[in-house]
Amino acid sequence: MKIEGRTFVVSGGASGLGRACVRDICRLGGNVVILDMNEELGPALIKELGAGSAKFLVCDVSDTGSIASAVMPTVSWIKETGKPLGGIIPAAGVGRPGLILNKANEPVPLSQIDFVLSINLRGTLDLVRQFLPALATSPPFSSDNERGVIVMVSSSAAFDGQMGQVAYAASKGAVASMTLPMARDLSRFGIRVVTVAPSMFESAMTAGMSDKVRKGLEKAMEFPARAGKPEEFSALVRHAIENVMLNGVVIRLDGATRMPSKL
Ligand SMILES: NC(=O)c1ccc[n+]([C@@H]2O[C@H](COP(=O)([O-])OP(=O)(O)OC[C@H]3O[C@@H](n4cnc5c(N)ncnc54)[C@H](O)[C@@H]3O)[C@@H](O)[C@H]2O)c1
């Protein structure tokens, strides 16, 4: 898939890893619709990129009506710009740590589990589901008749989740698990599905970590012994968009790091 001349929907695109993808896509001549709840960072990014190539829509991916109300404006903008939909990147995500059973013998509140699953898992699936009809009717590209690509975001926690990450690991493991069946469902439409599973990357999500936790994580790393940079994440997403042979696969982006139980 060529990025130039196509439109990509990026949830969580106002910050961190999603924002790096947005910047990359625009730099390469693609258009982006950013779906995010952050009403400060979203408009600021549009200002940076220019309204010609990026559009911000306030959207809560855990609310199916909120996603539904973003579909029509996206489709209209695509018609206006003449850049058909080329991909969906559900990057919105949250982490809310909590032991499944704490020292006081209290189980993790169900509301905490629901919060994480409703954004990371259900929000990812619902976003893809609701934008797919538009993607499946995009004009095919190249001799492969490719219509588009979905690049989902899992995590190291899908494979080696740490203490307190039961809900987060469940959400990210599910995203990894649905990669292949989704690719199988969509192959007849010429739509690929690739998932990236990053370890610790610099972003708002990790900025709040204490020095102790950060140092502990860095100790657990192989090479390079540092957090990944958002541009290193978006470089892989860009490759996933461009390389038609990547499909139905989860790619770890972690410098060989395997997370320990605790730090
Ligand atoms: N940073 C890391 O170390 C790391 C590692 C593995 C996976 N991830 C995953 O990468 C993705 C991006 O995270 P990030 O690190 O860039 O964090 P971030 O906090 O910088 O960005 C997340 C974005 O998602 C948005 N968002 C949150 N809830 C939303 C909702 N309900 N609807 C719409 N938007 C919502 C936020 O407003 C924010 O702009 C997440 O799925 C996260 O789980 C991050």
From TrEMBL:
InterPro entries: KR_dom, NAD(P)-bd_dom_sf, Sc_DH/Rdtase_CS, SDR_fam
Protein name in the entry: Ketoreductase domain-containing protein
Listed Pfam families: adh_short
Keyword NADP tagged: yes
Domain Ketoreductase, residue spans: 6-189
Keywords tagged on the record: NADP, Oxidoreductase
PROSITE patterns xref list: ADH_SHORT
Matching SUPFAM superfamilies: NAD(P)-binding Rossmann-fold domains
Keyword Zinc-finger: no
Organism field: Apodospora peruviana
GO MF term list: oxidoreductase activity
